[in-house]
Amino acid sequence: MSANGSPAGQQPTATYDSPFLKACRREPVPHTPVWFMRQAGRSLPEYRKVRQGIPMLESCMRPELVTEITLQPVRRHGVDAAIFFSDIVVPLKAIGVDLDIKPGVGPVVERPIRTRADLAQLRDLTPDDVPYVVEAIGLLTRELGGTPLIGFAGAPFTLASYLVEGGPSRTYENAKAMMYGDPELWADLLDRLADITAAFLKVQIEAGVSAVQLFDSWAGALAPADYRRSVMAASAKVFRAVEGYGVPRIHFGVGTGELLGLMGEAGADVVGVDWRVPLDEAVRRVGPGKALQGNLDPTVLFAGRDAVEAKTREILDAAAGLEGHIFNLGHGVMPSTDPDALTRLVEYVHANTAR
Ligand code: 1CP
Q1: Binding residue per annotation — 350?
Q2: Best residue among 86, 88, 200 to mutate for probing ligand 1, ranked by most atoms within 8 Å of CB
Q3: What residue segments make up the domains of the chain, in order of their start?
Q4: Strand runs (DSSP E) across 55-113, as ranges?
Q5: Which three-class secondary structure state does DSSP give residue 149?
Q6: Was 31 annotated as part of a binding site?
Q7: Chain centre to alpha carbon of residue 220
Q8: pLDDT by residue (tens digit) across 112-164?
Q9: Which residues are catalytic?
Q10: Which residues form the Uroporphyrinogen decarboxylase (URO-D) domain (predicted)?
């Protein structure tokens, strides 16, 4: 067994024994661990301050800034894990895809991928393409002590949705047109993205992250049969590629209630669940042997302390019989969330699950 997956490896024992990694491994924990998707970012005034005047993609390429932004929510909220500050399009930018993250919009691709010739934009990724990622992870693991750092990447389908559409979409009509109309081109596109994603996760693991999350944020747009036929093999290839490291692999998507079983089957150790499926039902859909992560609706945080506590109680009750629960939101923290509501939520989960 290698590096980060074992106490004998390069990972400090305190990190290996952290509640977050124990829960990923479905071992007993002193309290249910908590972290939030998009915990670093626009909900925090200290984030807005250090990001002033620095475009999103450029900020991902400055190791000191990435370190500071990644640490901000850990300091403020006392969460049980840090998530590396970056974006799912960073590895694509790093191999030369002409794209930008536009404020108020999201990732925008200059020349969308629509034909076989367009695939030439996607070459393999090497560690030399992302030196700033390696450097930032090195700085972070020194600063974080026993708090684990989660690395991440976008899953092939979600990356393809941006590359084929050219930007954010609600319907994914161009991506789905390729999937249904030219299944060979689609399969080749997803396979290439799987290799890039696997290489990017390997870089992060070798640099020192303790777990990885594959964000297939938009996979919920797919029927299960289409997911199985046209998407699952590529995500499974990513998970297989990093299996040997022994670090927990989390698989997350939004609106994926009907896909939970398949997303587990793709090779995850932990399956992320949004707020649409209660965790006691999610565990039946995912099947045995996997931890679950989730699943408070991020909009509940706007409803006041009593409502947050009542909804959180429901989630903790639904998770009571689970082996391996990591508390999270069902999707990312919304930019206008009151940071104090997040801090109180961490305290509430810790206090109400102390064993
Ligand atoms: O200038 C800014 O602050 C831009 C906003 C922003 C931020 C803070 C974007 C643009 N990306 C990020 C950081 C980011 N992106 C993180 C690190 C922060 C953390 O988690 O604490 C992570 C994990 C991501 C991953 C990401 N980017 C996903 C998967 C997670 C999810 O929310 O589903 C996706 C889909 C993206 C694309 C993206 N990047 C940015 C935006 C606004 C979007 C979504 C656009 C759309 O609606 O399609």
Answers
A1: no
A2: 88
A3: 3-353
A4: 82-83, 99-102, 106-109
A5: strand
A6: no
A7: 15
A8: 999 999 999 999 999 999 999 999 999 999 999 999 999 999 999 999 999 99
A9: 38, 42, 51, 87, 162
A10: 33-42, 150-166
Q: Tell me the C-alpha distance between 262 and 264, whole Å.
A: 5
Identify residue 1 by its one-letter amino acid code. Answer: M
Q: pTM (2 decimals)?
A: 0.96
Q: Within 6 Å (CB) of ligand 1, which residues are found?
A: 37-42, 56, 83, 85, 87-88, 101, 103, 106-107, 152, 168, 215, 217, 332
Residue 241 — very low, low, confident or very high, per pLDDT cuts 50/70/90? very high
CATH class name, domain 3-353: alpha beta
pLDDT tens for residues 312-330? 999 999 999 899 999 999 9
Give the closest residue to 174 by CA, choosing from 237, 260, 264, 109: 109
Q: Do the annotations mark residue 230 as ligand-binding?
A: no
Q: How far does the centroid of ligand 1 lie from the alpha carbon of residue 288, in Å?
A: 31
- To test the pocket of ligand 1, the residue of 34, 35, 37, 38 to mutate (highest count of ligand atoms within 8 Å of its CB) is 38
